[in-house]
Amino acid sequence: MTELTTKKITKSDLNKAFIRSNFLMASSNFERMQALGAYYSVVPALKKIYGDRPKEERVAAIRRHLEFFNTNPYVYGPILGITMAMEEQTQETEKESVISVRTGLMGPFAGLGDSLLAMTVVPIYMSIASGLAIEGNPLGPILFFVLFSITIWPIKYKGVFLGYEKGSELLTGKNGSNLLRRVSTMGNVVGMMVVGALIVSTVKITTPLEYSVGESTLKIQEMIDGIMPNFFPLLVTMSVYLLLKKKNAKNAVAIILAIMVLGMALSLLGILG
């Protein structure tokens, strides 16, 4: 790693990032999920880091943080802190590692936040508050708000600072360059695993086609699943990816409409299930 950037991010910037991170879900959409909210969170830090840098670098930084992003909002703080530390402490030739690490962390943190907080702690608090509310006790909703606040807000606030501090310590350490390469590689691997899991779990395409051979009936879907499960979802996903890449994603709306029309037409014809 070449000479590192002098630290520019202050406690005030971290506080601004924390406040903005609470709007992570405000502009969530089905194309890039929480990308706009994630970008909004790092805007103050990016202004500090890239304020005097060439326009090309500023544009590249904005594009990096508008990439697809989706995680549990309760545990977004550490990812945000690490992201800011990497933007500050890496050279322009190493910036791809920022996206690799951010993408690699969003899946594990989402699982952690969903299982421990969103699906365990919060429902417990809600059941306690609901029990009081059903009995006519007005303290029920207030109790939930208090319990939720003393649990979630410290995690979110401390997470930003802890992520930034630990990220900076690792990157500025003796083996910072080697560590960055290793973390980047791991982030790429985990990120690809997350994307692969998303394809399997969200893209559902089957065909009811079948044909008879003598007294036997062969189902096309079962034959394909026996050779390569989830072949149709993979085929469609790769096709959409290549089309988006060809036009630099400027044809996203046209592709969505085309998939809707083609899907309905093939379903009416009995080709798709």
TrEMBL record:
This is PTS system mannose/fructose/sorbose family transporter subunit IID. The keyword Transmembrane helix applies. The chain crosses the membrane at residues 116-134, 140-164, 185-207, 227-244, 251-272. GO terms for cellular component: plasma membrane. It comes from the Bacteria. GO terms for biological process: phosphoenolpyruvate-dependent sugar phosphotransferase system. It holds the Pfam family EIID-AGA. InterPro entries: GatZ_KbaZ_carbometab, PTS_IID_man.
